[in-house]
Amino acid sequence: MHTILIANRGEIACRVIRTARRMGYRTVAVYSEADAGALHVEMADTAVAIGPAPAAESYLRADRILAAAKATDADAVHPGYGFLAENADFAEACAAAGLTFIGPPPDAIRAMGAKSQAKALMADTGVPLVPGYHGEDQSPEILAAAAEKIGYPVLIKASAGGGGKGMRVVEHADVFADQLAGAQREAKAGFGDDRVLIEKYLARPRHVEVQVFADAHGNAVYLFERDCSIQRRHQKVIEEAPAPGMTDDLRRSMGAAAVAAAKAIGYVGAGTVEFLLDQDGAFYFMEMNTRLQVEHPVTEMITGLDLVEWQFLVAEGQSLPLGQEDLAINGHAIEVRFYAEDPDNNFLPAPGRLRYLAFPEEGGGVRVDTGVRAGDTITPHYDPMIAKLIVHGPDRPTACRRLGHALSQTKAAGPATNLGFLRHIVRHRAFAPEHGDPDLDTGFIERFRDALLPEPGPAPAEAVLLAVLGVTLDRRSSATVSWPDPWSATDGWRLNGVFDEALSLSDGSRDLAVTVHHGGDQRMVIDGTAYQVAGTLQERDLTATIAGRSMRATFLRDGLDLTILTETGDFHFTLDDPIAKADVDDAATGSLASPMPGKIVTVLVAEGDTVTRGQALLVLEAMKMEHTVKAPADGMIGRLPYRAGDQVDEGVELVGFEIGA
User: Fold this and answer.
1) Which CATH homologous superfamily contains domain 331-436?
2) Spatial distance between the Cα atoms of 436 and 197, rounded to a whole number of angstroms
């Protein structure tokens, strides 16, 4: 292989490109219209556009990806994960086009693609299975009888599914029929296949998976296990390796079962065999992912290996670099998935522009895998992952401490994120106990939901003071740059006197009045309590001393919206400033731009209409959330370029607007 086309996007495309270039391969990226300026496009040697933003018209178009490979003289395709990574037809099409598919054989993909067939195959191989029904007869009567035989509670799962779709936990026989119908409808809508399987529901299992690797010469090894028990909506949030509390005997048993599963289907390449681990130590085959996994970095961290490099070597026909006896575990690694999503809104994706993004410095046991930068947009078309933060330490307590510090150094502004949620998990005593093993299972988030998703409360005094300090320092800096003369200074100086300035702002739950005392010293008063406050603002970096305590924060201002990012939390305020409000109104450009990619739900006005400030003009939907676009001032509607149902990109003009007309 000389030139490798990466048939994916985001952090996995960037990850593959880095290893490919280190090994001397030429790299080709593909991209949709939404990803024209993406990081993976910038990193690759060559990039080819393959279609519009929707994945069905770009990243899922095998014909366009193969055409891009032909046009760039690529001789291999790495599918990453997601999209076409587990598509047997695509693997066959690559072979037919003379391309090396860096993944397992098509027959192996098909063997594990249907859960029922895969479990039947594993039963023949002797891999342990959860008691259940995986038969072809899908009549409601047969399925209900199977549930009775297995014993309630049972789990209904879509046979061809994943990601939690078509899945129902049924506690009693009297609701089985309704739950079955719902699971079948969801499976049909999500996968075009309404077949289901029935399994015994394990009350508090752990999700433990084994990384396997095989070559074309009959060699296969397991690279130990990962615990992926912390999940929301059946999707992983935190993964770690090795699994806490794992005994050597259990590790060998699970590893041997995983290798047996791979050999049973003639597997070649990287794969993951997923198990449910019951509290009594029994484990059961769940499924096999015939691709590289999102969480593969934790395996790399504890083994010192590059799994993408191994994929390339195996795809070239080489034998595995190491045998089972050569592999060993070094320390402990943990990965968190940092998403643009709203934990307070059932973890729904939150597309939008990343106004600010900062990560911890890599090295010293810290690694960051990302495919975005500050200024990029998380679109509604793809998975909303911002980054994976991975840490490694000599033991789990050290890894937990490093993860907590790494999360405190990670900051983002723009769309809602799960950053605060991740910080709550890592600080929780059940995840990082002072002594002993953590209390992990797939119901972790639901069990500790109140602590992990606390109700938002008022901002602490320190955050309010940081916001006000940022405003005063930002104003002073702006005035000095714009009008470098003493008469235009905004530092509150008075000859032989002092000046008390009143500022009003809101943290979303309450209105706040802060008195800023400009004089020999700077004091701020909130609710009758005075604080000595001083600090400096360099770009966005705010350094402050409040009541003798030093602290640092990131200060962001967008008109009247203020954001304070600290190591312990993020805080948002709205400034009530009549002068600034007037400036915002005066700065209106005569058009209203889309704040994020989405779909026009309804247009509430017509061209030529006269409207008043705050009047709703249209409704934009992005990832099931509606956003109402309102008039910034009194005026008249000009051009309306979009209609209900139209898809729009971030920044496009939604409404032509004439102020005061």
Assistant:
1) ATP-grasp fold, B domain (3.30.470.20)
2) 37
